[in-house]
Amino acid sequence: MSGEPPRRSGRRRYGAGVRWTVVDAPLDSSGTGRGEQRAPEALRRAGLVAALDADDGGAVDARVEDAARDPTSGLIGAEAVRRASAAIAARVAELLAAGQRPLVVGGDCAILPGVCRALPAGSDLWFVDAHPDFYDGATSETGEGADMDLSVVTGHGPAVAAGVEGALVDPNRVHLLGHRPAVEEAGRVEAARIDPRIRQVPAAELRRDPGLVGAALAEEGSAPAWLHLDLDALDPVDLPAVTYPEPDGLRRPELVALVAPLTRADRLLGMSVTDLNVDRDLDGRHARRVVELLVELLRP
Ligand SMILES: [Mn+2]
């Protein structure tokens, strides 16, 4: 492909100095064309690629345009989600093999299984989200893949969402960060499903010293790591343009304190960022704020 940077030599080359490669993954797992589907184009319009001085990795065909809930898996658009996961996995694997550092821009959290398929065995997953995303096809009220992504990648959700059987990451290597306590019955059902090997630091606990948590995680071992950031981890005061806002989230400086040590870690392979809903951002101000946030986190 013309315009693609030259392939680097075979040695894996991840590290703090590696440029980011932006890849769009416009997956809306409700199958209804909700605003998450148009978040990648909104963030590009807000100047994301130039602002990060990133390489442009184009777009993956990750659209889900089937809103029917599959009776077997309980997943909306099951076949389309499976296809999207395969496409995301192929692109992320290709970039990692070339020594590049992907920034996969959703879409919603249903992009995560595709990403995790591409990770080397033994990778750490830093999962920052208001929600644990630990339903399965039976317990999710919505049937959206974005309800189930962390359960899928740890082997507790419908495998069709990943397109492959079994856990894609070792639950011992997963950190669930910034979530809020379950309030309603459904949330308690979800919380009870979380694999006990996953280490959890909910928002209320993180807030005491988010920088310390981030620095400790970054320095814990030398395994390759992936950072997944659902923007609804932020308090709705700072980012209301999400589909499922949760109160009592991290304020912007707290999120930066947590995440900046992770994005500066030499062992970070790449990052996914999800859940800007542009239907709730009619003048583009929140897209611009997300770009500013990513610049603060990701510019060397
Ligand atoms: Mn999520």
Describe the model:
With about 300 residues, the protein is an alpha/beta fold. The chain has one domain (about 20-290): Arginase, Chain A (3-Layer(aba) Sandwich). Helix content is about 30%, strand content about 15%. The chain has 10 helices and 8 strands. It has helices at about 40-45, 50, 80-95, 110-115, 150-155, 185-195, 205, 210-220, 250-265, 285-300, and strands at about 20-25, 55-60, 100-105, 125-130, 175, 200, 225-230, 270-275. Strands 2-1-3-8-7-4-5-6 form an 8-stranded parallel beta sheet, sandwiched between helices. β7 (about 225-230), α9 (about 250-265) and β8 form a beta-alpha-beta unit. It is globular. The chain binds manganese (II) ion (MN). Manganese (II) ion (MN) binds near residues 146 and 230.
* Overall number of domains: 1
Portion in strands: 5-15%
What radius of gyration results from the CA coordinates?
17 Å
Discrete helix count:
10
Structural class by helix and strand composition:
alpha/beta
Give the biggest beta sheet. 8 strands, parallel
N-to-C series of helices and strands: EHHEHEHEHEHEHHEHEH
CATH class: Alpha Beta
Tell me what the CATH architecture is: 3-Layer(aba) Sandwich
Low-confidence stretches: 1-13
**The named CATH superfamily:** Ureohydrolase domain
The residue-averaged pLDDT reads: 94
Secondary structure: helix percent: 25-40%
Distance between the termini: 27 Å
CATH fold description: Arginase, Chain A
Small molecules held by this entry: manganese (II) ion
- Count the strands? 8
How would the global form be characterised?
globular
Strands of the biggest beta sheet: in what spatial order?
A: 2-1-3-8-7-4-5-6
